[in-house]
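A reminder before we start the practical. When you read a complex entry, don't treat the lines as separate problems. The point of joint prediction is that each chain is placed relative to the others, so the output describes one connected object in space. Small molecules and nucleic acid strands, if listed, are placed in the same frame. In the example below there are two entries. Take a minute to note the order of the lines before looking further.
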Amino acid sequence: MSAESLYRSYQDQIEKALSDIQLCDQPEDLYQPIRYVLEMGGKRLRPMLCLLSNDLYEGDTEAAMHAALALEVFHNFTLLHDDIMDKACTRRKQDCVHIKWNPNVAILSGDAMQILAFELLSNVPKDKLKVCLDLFAKTAREVCEGQQYDMEFETRSDVTEAEYVRMIRLKTAVLLAASLKMGAILAGANKKEANHLYQYGIHLGLAFQLQDDWLDAFGSIESFGKRIGGDIVSNKKTYLLIHALENAKDKDAEDLTYWISVQPEDPTEKIQAVKAIFERTGVDALCRNEIRNNMELAMDHLHALQLSTERIKPLMDLGNRLMERNH
Amino acid sequence: MSAESLYRSYQDQIEKALSDIQLCDQPEDLYQPIRYVLEMGGKRLRPMLCLLSNDLYEGDTEAAMHAALALEVFHNFTLLHDDIMDKACTRRKQDCVHIKWNPNVAILSGDAMQILAFELLSNVPKDKLKVCLDLFAKTAREVCEGQQYDMEFETRSDVTEAEYVRMIRLKTAVLLAASLKMGAILAGANKKEANHLYQYGIHLGLAFQLQDDWLDAFGSIESFGKRIGGDIVSNKKTYLLIHALENAKDKDAEDLTYWISVQPEDPTEKIQAVKAIFERTGVDALCRNEIRNNMELAMDHLHALQLSTERIKPLMDLGNRLMERNH
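Here is the predicted structure of the whole assembly.
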């Protein structure tokens, strides 16, 4: 099967399995938000990574699908609760649950959704349950840690690069990594193989998040899918801003301090000015370099697997395709 | 060992095990609230029921302690999130997490706490993990359902007795029941025994919650531990109010409708008037009768166990002691 038709087949299976998840009817305001969030769509990246990784070692797709669903449901739960905390209004062009219903419904249906993730996971083969549960729970807690750091950074101006990288590793990368590792574990891969896949996920996740930062400033609305400059407007401590604050000198330093202290009604000038400082301080190139480094590390881990190049192609292609929005 | 020294021994072991739970240090605002909530104290009823039930069949206390901790941590997580939703300010005379920190910290540390509960549970013996996890997750989701119904009842005036009993069963009774059942399962008891213990927990939980309703109106501050009349002031759809709304006639019906439509600054007169209607409509006696019925059903299930009266004494005593605050 070509990589392309493999994706399409898995994508269809994932969507079908997601819509087949049995949810109770009552109380409506507990279960309808879960269905609503799961039907919002998305790339289904985590279940896809889990199934592709499982496929590397010819694992049973049906068994891996339980873990794949658990990962996707957990991911969507974090979006639901993050949107409350971040006071977001829309997600994928639809109202967030706390807007469409109310914050209490969003808190509680999120709680039930997290439980549902564990319930789905409990269906993996019994002899793998303990190891999957441990990995899943540890990762889930790390994702919470990442969100906490992310919130704390909003009110800090002294965030270091190391702190930032730790935050995006926890908030984004570990769940991708765990998805890959779990697929491998369920297929019976050994520890070394599973860990290479984990590391592939970590570096792919870091590259992806760094690219998100870069695109917010230098992308186009088509490639990014969101309005450009959102992070600049909100003074988000991204890789770009952290380094610009560190590197900017003289007038650039003064200007940057000014721009992050103001919230103009029309943000066009602020976005342009901050982007120009990003370019002059070289953080634009620095960020692209860091993305490239992480992609190389990711691919190194894929090539370290005891598998043929042909076999790892679908995962390699998926990683590359994920990073193809940089123009 | 006497029942009394058995409790004390388990109580000490539970407190020690709770304080021995390994939590990360960082980020502080994620983990400190969890420690804070666990150190607030409480009856530790759920772990106690789990250990006592495990003891009935001479199960290994160390193995059951993992489940006992999971149950207590989950219960405390529900209090944490319920307090946000209910806009409560204090819990056990201390500031709630969303007051002491902020609502976002309360949401997120609650999420991490729920994950922690599953992590603790994952330490039960491997051959029992699947059955414990299924029971735990199903019960956890039911508790969410109970909280959702409870919130919905606030804005409804047509709640039926059946709906009310379903709500308190889900919100309170099922977790007590699951605690007992899990202890028995871990000790290797058969399904029939485990189910009798589950039913003991259901009826004990219903009796306990109904008594809570009754004490709110007819208890003393000493026996109840909270100010009297809180439910009356907030027009909470308790067993008493539901039946009073159904049974009250003529002037009582008129008066009750009036009182639940007003929010006087000094609630003394409202509390006295509503209590008098409760007495005249006979719902005071009705409630006490329902408590007695449930306690009898609870004890029937204990006596149905294939165990000597001596062996079930600690659980029987604990149930009776729990209900001894009715004066």
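Discuss with your neighbour: Residues 126-153 of chain A form the longest helix (28 residues). What might explain this?
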